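check these tokens.
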Amino acid sequence: MTKRRVAKEEEAKQVKLLGPLATCFTIFKGFAATSVLYVPKDFFNGGYIFAPAMLVFSLLVTLYCSKLLLEVNDRLGGSASFPEMAFKAYGKWGKICTEIAIATSQFFFCTAYVYFIAS
């Protein structure tokens, strides 16, 4: 068990971290890559000023929330999952609610993706 932990720590030290600009770009790229099928129509429906502004606003909110989650993860030792963080913050019900929220969001994300591909 100790050899594995040492190996994981050595691998973690070799990983190059992204800077703030690269992180913003990566998140923006993730939004664009997953939305490439339906964003053009949304830009048309939402307007060419409002839609990009909301996309950037969504990017900033996501970046801020990710930063908060990373800070919580660091305070908990660096290897906590979302349900573990919720358990430490809110107890058993926090963990259950988090697991339900993750499963529900993943289900509906996949459903929406299949719908957009089909249409």
Summary: The two ends are 50 Å apart (CA to CA). The mean pLDDT is 80.
